[in-house]
Write the structure tokens for this entry.
Amino acid sequence: MAKEKIKIEDRVWDAASKEILSKAENDCIDTCFTRSDAQGVQCKFGSSGVCCRICHMGPCKITPKASRGICGADADTIVARNFLREVSAGTAAHSDHGRHLVLRLKKVAEGKGGDYHIKDEEALYRTADMYNINCDDRTNEEIAIDLANLFLEEFMLQEDQLKTLRLAPLNQQNIWKQHNIKPLGVDRMVVESLHRTHIGVDHDYKNLLKSAFKTSLADGWGGSRIAMMVSDILFGTPVPVKSTANLGVLSETCPNIVVHGHEPELSEMLAIAVNDPEIIKYAKAAGVEGVNLSGICCTANEILMRHGIPVAGNFLQQELALVTGAIEMMLIDVQCCMPSLPEVAAAYHTEIVSTAEMAQTIGATYFKFDEENALESAKVIIKKAIDNFKNRDQAKVAIPSAKKPMIAGFSVQAIKHMLGGTFRSTFRPLNDAIIANRIKGVVGIVGCNNPKSKVDSYINILTRELVKKNVLILKTGCAAISSGKEGLLTPEAALEIAGDGLKEVCEAVGIPPVLHMGSCVDNSRILEAATEVVLEGGLGDDLSQLPAVGIAPEWMSEKAVAIGCYFVASGIDVILGQPFNIAGSDNVTRFLNEEAKELFGGAFHYEPDPIEAAKKTLTILDEARNNLGINKKVERKLFDMKDRREM
Ligand code: SF4
Ligand code: MSK
């Protein structure tokens, strides 16, 4: 049975998406929204997690008449196995991204990096110091090779636990040890999870779920954290940077190149190459002023954070961007790039170019990115896009005017610097503001969009609601782009709606109330920030004691499942706007939503309504504040310059 047709204004939040979705209808283009309708009512066995395809005696499903699969697996086993497989896939995706960057760092250290260099010496020293790598009287390359080898070992460790776990507060590490969820090497964890979930291996739902938490820690405190640290060394630690968001960033007069996916290596080179004199000359010869580079999803977030390159949109705008008819080339790499892109592009003149050997799509051109000569490679691809500009059919072009200014680039180092001032980087003012109840707590709002709900709606309503209630918001991924499009990533706009306490602190120390911290792998920056707060003192000994919550309002990917798990395993409650596929097992649901809290200090909560989610968040923050004994009334005294200097 087909679903009832949903009106455009109920599908998407922002004006640009509404305009282009209507154009897509007129141009007879299928998008994820029409395909979602065509799917009809989705499979209940799948959505409750009780469908098992793990062996070929099946597929089996659990029904009122059949409480076990052919092998005897019950609903608990099947749901838990499916869940662990999702976490493993998410961990693999983030971590493989991290591995590619580590291999790049190793090449750079060996003098074989081509156009890549160690851009951020301070990040190199900072990271080496975290792992006690000697930096005295050694070249950057010597330090980098030690670091790269250590990181590669993090993937391969067979019997030892990840060294990167030691970046967590000591008490946190003890909790993981107590519950035996300290992961071994990243690859080992993913392989073991696949083995564990093979027919006839692990059938105890609790054991399977503990393994899911253990594997997820190999993501958040392993692969993702490594990806983030190596990106900072190679491409620079982000600092606040101005930019613009939404489809209105596309150019009417210049060739548009849109990068999409997750890995920053080629896009970093594109960001440099678009301003190269050779490219400008080539563009002028083609009758245009230059090339307009923008991004979608997390590749966008990577080059936004470091170069201020504009963001054309988030996950569910990838097809809409093509429907503008104004894109000469979309470059796709890994993760979150829809297989439908070449088909949508075929209705216009857009060329879809895949730059990752492992991520190809029928209809896309595969471009072998020469990593040894990355800048040259970037120029070749840009010239191809310029050549395609002459094929743009103006009759098919409609670029929406909607776009908003924003500020991004809030790495932990940047936040610390802003909080502490020029001479002493510190999180102290934030801790003091939380203790004094000017800031109620800190909330990470992360994750994707999902056609099951109105795009960006939950994210934007929730963000506004929490900012009003004096909650400091940290954002990553597509949720951060939602706020960018909404105009909430400028201090002025966010301060206008912020509660008095939050406003006062943000104005005094000069940070906005909603901080864009980067891409999906940069969720590890949120863990890093939480660790800094714990280490600064006064708010408990581990992350579970902090007044902090993670929220994934419109998530859809397996990576989001892994992220949710490493937040919970780190003691942080996570609210989901979309449920996990676990409803078929009461035991699994109870373990994830209740028992996890007793083990790790955090658990999952499902809340489909953003206002209710905000209320739930405030309750969790209040509970943590009560436990810490800091839930007192706000003192009336304001920060002044004298206070700030003393701090
Ligand atoms: Fe069915 Fe068991 Fe095979 Fe799953 S593993 S498909 S439940 S027989
Ligand atoms: S891109 S994982 S849709 S956030 Fe990181 Fe966006 Fe989700 Fe992909």
Q: What stands out?
A: The CA atoms of residues 217 and 566 lie 5 Å apart. The domain at 410-628 is CATH 3.40.50.2030 (Rossmann fold).
